Amino acid sequence: MKLKFCGAAGTTTGSQHLLEVNGQRILLDCGLYQGRRKDAYEINCCFPHFDPATIDSVVLSHAHIDHSGNLPNLTSKGFNGNIYATFATRDLCQIMLADSARIQKSDTDWVNKRRKKENLPPLEPLYSVQDAEQCNRQFVNMGYNRAMHIGKGVKLTFLDAGHILGSAQVLLEVEDEEDGKTKRFLFSGDVGRGNNDLLRDPVIAENIDYLLMESTYGGREHELGTQADEQVAEILRQAIDRGGKIIIPAFAVERTQQLLYVLYQLFRNDEIPDIPVYVDSPLAVNATEIFRLHPECFNEEVYQVLFDKQNPFGFEGLTLIRSVAKSKELNAQDQQAIIISASGMCEAGRILHHLKNGIENPKNTILFVGYCAENTLGSKIREGKEKVRIFGEEYKLRANVEKMDSFSGHADHSELIDYFNAMSGPRKKVWLVHGETSRSEKMCDALTQIHDGEVSVAELGKEVIF
Ligand SMILES: [Zn+2]
Ligand SMILES: [Zn+2]
Question: Where are the beta strands (DSSP E) in 50-163?
Answer without folding.
Answer: 57-59, 82-85, 139-141, 148-151, 154-160
